[in-house]
Design a protein that fits this description.
Length: about 240
């Protein structure tokens, strides 16, 4: 027997030649990151994945900016081309309105008492008194007759309206011109249409009546009323024309 027994390799196995699978919990080296399947060394070149996203965002921003510039340019070009046509149409519409208003302006009228206005209108004027003042209808009717009106009935108001205003002019809707003519004779008179079918017009004197207007005042009032109606009609026609 040997006095120096040889070392038993089975008792002191060499770690470098040890058989069997490695432990799943083996400690990774400080130079590695990641899981079991993919490992990247710290010393390897790092690929910046975010740069690709930034480049995509920049490209998308450039594309959207270009589309926005093209859209604004196209909009400005369309406005530049169509604006003169719109302005021309608006100017034409305004010119047509001005011509219509000028054509609608009534010509100067002769005084009512001369017969050019009242005498030429063939309608009967009834003069009624709605107040307690005796003889008011008769005296007023005499003055109106001297101004060329054809006087019909002269009596108390058949409707017993007891008016507080200066006068009320009653008549059919078709007698608008005649009603304005009579209303011009009394300052503050108001027109009230009714359902009558004959061409007569009623002048109903109220408690606010003091006297008839002078012939010059009546003529001016009649011209102003005619001008206002003509202007309103011309403006409505012009608005309808421009709307189309």
């Amino acid at each position: 027997m040997d006095s120096n027994p040889q070392p038993d390799d089975r008792q002191n196995p060499d770690p470098e030649h040890a058989d069997g699978p490695q432990s799943e919990h083996a400690v990774r080296s400080p130079g590695e990151i990641g899981g079991k399947k993919f490992r990247v060394g710290v010393d390897d070149a790092y690929v910046p994945f975010r740069n690709r996203t930034k480049r995509r965002r920049k490209t998308l921003g450039f594309v959207l900016g270009g589309l926005l510039i093209l859209g604004v340019g196209a909009y400005g070009l369309v406005n530049l081309v169509t604006a003169p046509e719109q302005n021309t149409a608006a100017d034409s519409c305004k010119a047509g309105s001005t011509r219509a208003l000028a054509a609608a302006a009534p010509a100067p009228m002769a005084p009512v008492g001369s017969g050019a206005s009242a005498g030429a209108a063939k309608f009967t004027l009834n003069v009624y008194n709605s107040t307690q003042r005796h003889g008011l209808a008769a005296s007023t009717a005499a003055q109106l007759k001297s101004r060329g009106f054809v006087i019909g009935q002269v009596t108390n108001d058949p409707l017993k309206a007891n008016l507080a205003i200066s006068a009320q002019v009653r008549g059919a809707k078709s007698q608008a011109a005649e009603e304005r003519q009579v209303a011009a004779e009394v300052p503050g008179a108001r027109i009230q249409t009714d359902s009558r079918t004959d061409p007569s017009v009623d002048l109903v004197l109220g408690s606010g009546f003091t006297s008839l207007a002078s012939t010059q005042q009546a003529t001016a009032a009649l011209q102003a009323a005619a001008a206002a109606e003509a202007s309103a009609s011309a403006a409505a026609d012009a608005a309808t024309h421009c709307a189309h």
